[in-house]
TrEMBL record:
<comment type="similarity">
    <text>Belongs to the SURF1 family.</text>
</comment>
<keyword id="KW-1133">Transmembrane helix</keyword>
<dbReference type="InterPro" id="IPR002994">
    <property type="entry name" value="Surf1/Shy1"/>
</dbReference>
<dbReference type="GO" id="GO:0005886">
    <property type="term" value="C:plasma membrane"/>
</dbReference>
<feature type="region of interest" description="Disordered">
    <location>
        <begin position="252"/>
        <end position="277"/>
    </location>
</feature>
<keyword id="KW-0472">Membrane</keyword>
<keyword id="KW-0812">Transmembrane</keyword>
<keyword id="KW-1003">Cell membrane</keyword>
<dbReference type="Pfam" id="PF02104">
    <property type="entry name" value="SURF1"/>
</dbReference>
<protein>
    <recommendedName>
        <fullName>SURF1-like protein</fullName>
    </recommendedName>
</protein>
<dbReference type="InterPro" id="IPR045214">
    <property type="entry name" value="Surf1/Surf4"/>
</dbReference>
Length: 277
């Protein structure tokens, strides 16, 4: 088989098919880049559509203690209630625009929490990420609006529990499973990323960007399939050459089996042929 592979025409075929495989591989990478680009574009369009859509009432999309489905991430909602300043916590080691600081997490006792989600129990508490601050010792930035507030924001799923070694007044994670022990219940299994507040909150708190939509891979499926097709074509080109080499080798006859060519028997001219007379 090695002898067949080393023949000039097989080497020429190898060069041509390797070139075709390289082109297919490059086209596959191009389609993969397109899949990522189109996936990001689709995600930006979806975020823009959600931001422009009128907010839904929190009670219509999520009930306290109910399971938080992935399609609720980034859902724009509005809610009314009263903050509980004594329960406010800071979440350390959170970055915004390349700077590390603290998230300001404040419990909101929700009023009118009923709705299509069907909650009829006690007044629930909703964790609200009011924004980000660089300095945990700035009382003006951490001030909580008094009285009833009307909030608009984006839903985000609760985080996993932290280590439990929290500094007083801080929490490692926005985890409803931990916060219910601090604030009491019933509690929502997600939290609100604040977008706007009436009345307005202190100017020292920087609002957070909307959460990334959940449930997607970030890749366009159609372009991803095209990339896979090109890579399969490239692999087929290499396999085709191997098959041709195998067929070429199968057609060869080994020298030790070839033997001497058969020589026909010589007819003696002097011999008498019965029907020659």
């Amino acid at each position: 088989m090695l002898r067949a592979a080393a023949r000039p025409r097989m080497i020429v075929l190898l060069v041509l098919l390797l070139g075709a495989a390289a082109v297919c591989a490059r086209l596959g990478v191009w389609q993969l880049d397109r899949a990522q680009l189109r996936g990001e574009q689709a995600e930006r369009v979806a975020v823009a559509e959600r931001e422009q859509a009128p907010p839904a009432a929190l009670g219509d999309v999520l009930a306290p203690q109910a399971s938080f489905s992935g399609d609720l991430v980034g859902e724009r909602v509005e809610v009314e209630g009263r903050y509980e300043p004594e329960g406010q916590l800071l979440v350390p080691e959170r970055a915004l625009d390349g700077r590390t600081g603290y998230l300001v997490l404040t419990p909101l006792r929700v009023s009118g929490s009923g709705g299509d989600a069907g909650w009829t129990g006690p007044v629930p508490v909703l964790p609200v990420a009011r924004g980000w601050v660089a300095d945990a010792a700035d009382p003006a930035a951490l001030a909580v609006p008094d009285g009833a507030v009307r909030l608009t924001g984006y839903l985000q799923v609760s985080e996993a529990s932290g280590s439990g070694d929290d500094v007083p007044g801080q929490t490692e994670a926005i985890s409803s499973a931990e916060l219910v022990n601090r604030w009491g219940g019933p509690i929502y299994t997600g939290y609100l990323v604040l977008a706007s507040s009436e009345p307005a909150q202190p100017a020292g708190v920087a609002l957070l960007p909307p959460p990334t939509l959940g449930g997607g891979s970030g890749l366009n499926v159609q372009n991803l399939a095209y990339a896979a097709q090109w890579w399969i074509f490239g692999a087929f080109a290499v396999l085709l050459w191997l098959r041709l080499v195998k067929d070429e080798a199968a057609g060869d006859v080994p020298e030790d089996e070839a033997g001497e060519p058969a020589v026909p028997d010589r007819v003696d001219a002097s011999s008498e042929v019965p029907w020659s007379r």
